[in-house]
User: Which sequence fits this backbone?
């Protein structure tokens, strides 16, 4: 009696199925609880990995809900790589379509933010530009420059008060009543989440896409003040080259 | 295959490295003479994990221990993952690389557990072919670790020790002997752990693992031990280590503690006990 890995895997992920043929106790009786050890290892280890990856989503929905939801997720989206640090890539889209989570419409944005923090943590190291690098650019060429962002920088646009939702659930405090996109950066080893206005988010999105500074500023609308945004990007070591 | 310029693991205790112990280890490593990492946790592009390794590798020999290559998988090895392992090994130049006699990936789904294999001629061929591919890609010998088993396969027609000896003979790989896994499997499948050691190809052992397990029962009330790496090594496993070392001579000993990771001081106590087991050879 041959036990194929297809049989084994199918039964592993489907608790309603019996253990595959050919797996047995030491006395030759077909295995039941012994097979469940593997079943449990797979489900619990993947659920734990998701709980570690999405602590704020977990807090927002409650742990019982989260672990039940993770059980659905891990069967629909088992890992596709042994590199588990990025497991959960499909969580934002999954949450957007997960019926029982519809009452918390900002969950996908929170999941995007938490995924981006992991990517930021593991991103390649990069040397930031010198603080006076911009000052050395001739003023008339400034509108034409583009920026290269550090690989650890991620922009999370949001129509919800994303930054304060995240902050309230990690540090405490109230939730704002306005849209708060978030910027993730990693000045050294620990990712930092900063709050942006929607206008700043639009300008950064354009800059990340390689839009020249002059044109990117138009995304911020009339009267956009570049100073605070540039100060933030420089203080977070977010820029690694100015391209003239 | 043997590269004499490579560092080797010393015959001292080592520990499975956890990031929260970085400062403790840099300050006072106690009897710890080397460190082991799970390869997959160091496959990011940068940041703190790799920076810590850079610092630690100036002070300690490293063992890179893969947990995701699925060497026993029915399908081909994941070439992307093998390439990532090569990148890590080329960068860190560890004293040892090891993986498991298990499978974890099937049809591109990675199941995040070390799943069991039947011991047959067909499995020998598949595992040996995969190990050949690993050793030629990495340009180094690998060690293969015996699993913790919870069940048996009807189709198995050879013992685990004969299976491992055959793999060593075919591939020239070395072995990572996990004595806790021996104790867990022997209890679960109802054989003597000492007779397993008697039949095991000890000359090929490049490293020994020690870890904790949980206790449960199967549906008939028979003992069912679960490999957890979340507790102290139990006395019968220390006794099995002594039994093994008396036959094998000194080996690099690793304390594995991966879940509910304790404070550094608790790990140091475990390594002191491992150091004591090695002291008979001093």
Assistant:
């Amino acid at each position: 009696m041959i036990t194929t890995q297809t049989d084994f895997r199918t039964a592993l992920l489907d608790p309603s199925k019996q253990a595959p043929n050919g797996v047995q106790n030491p006395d030759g009786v077909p295995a039941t609880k012994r097979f469940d050890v593997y079943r449990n290892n797979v489900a619990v280890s993947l659920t734990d990995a998701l709980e570690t990856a999405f602590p704020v989503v977990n807090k927002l929905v409650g742990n019982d809900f989260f672990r039940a939801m993770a059980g659905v997720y891990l069967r629909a989206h088992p890992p596709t790589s042994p590199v588990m640090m990025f497991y959960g890539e499909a969580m934002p889209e999954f949450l957007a379509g997960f019926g029982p989570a519809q009452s918390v419409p900002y969950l996908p944005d929170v999941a995007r933010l938490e995924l981006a923090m992991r990517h930021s943590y593991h991103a390649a190291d990069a040397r930031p530009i010198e603080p006076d690098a911009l000052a050395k650019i001739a003023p008339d060429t400034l509108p034409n420059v583009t920026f290269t962002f550090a690989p650890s920088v991620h922009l999370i646009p949001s129509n919800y008060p994303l930054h304060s939702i995240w902050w309230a659930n990690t540090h405490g405090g109230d939730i704002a009543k306005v849209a708060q996109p978030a910027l993730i950066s990693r000045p050294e080893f620990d990712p930092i989440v900063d709050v942006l206005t929607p206008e700043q988010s639009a300008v950064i999105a354009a800059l990340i896409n390689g839009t020249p500074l002059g044109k990117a500023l138009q995304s911020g609308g009339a009267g956009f003040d570049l100073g605070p945004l540039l100060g933030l990007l420089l203080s977070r070591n977010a820029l690694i080259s100015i391209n003239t | 295959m043997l590269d004499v310029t490579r560092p080797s693991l010393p015959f001292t205790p080592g520990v499975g490295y956890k990031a929260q112990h970085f400062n403790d280890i840099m300050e006072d490593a106690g009897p710890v003479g080397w460190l082991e990492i799970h390869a997959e946790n160091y496959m990011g592009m940068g940041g703190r994990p790799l920076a810590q390794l850079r610092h630690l590798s100036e002070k300690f020999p490293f063992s890179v221990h893969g947990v995701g290559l699925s060497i026993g998988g029915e399908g081909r090895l994941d070439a992307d993952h093998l390439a990532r392992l090569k990148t890590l090994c080329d960068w860190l130049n560890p004293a040892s690389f090891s993986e498991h006699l298990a499978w974890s990936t099937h049809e591109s789904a990675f199941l995040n557990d070390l799943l069991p294999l039947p011991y047959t001629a067909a499995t020998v061929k598949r595992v040996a072919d995969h190990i050949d591919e690993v050793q030629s890609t990495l340009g180094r010998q690998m060690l293969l670790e015996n699993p913790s088993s919870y069940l048996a396969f009807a189709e198995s027609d050879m013992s685990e020790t004969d299976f491992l000896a055959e793999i060593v003979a075919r591939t020239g790989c070395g072995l990572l002997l996990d004595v806790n896994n021996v104790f867990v499997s022997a209890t679960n499948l109802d054989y003597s752990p000492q007779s397993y050691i008697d039949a095991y190809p000890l000359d090929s052992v490049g490293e020994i693992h020690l870890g904790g397990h949980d206790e449960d029962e199967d549906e008939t009330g028979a003992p069912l031990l679960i490999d957890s790496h979340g507790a102290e090594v139990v006395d019968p496993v220390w006794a099995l280590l002594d039994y093994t070392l008396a036959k094998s001579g000194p080996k690099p000993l690793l304390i594995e503690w991966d879940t509910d990771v304790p404070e550094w001081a608790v790990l140091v106590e475990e390594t002191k006990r491992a150091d004591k087991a090695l002291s008979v050879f001093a």
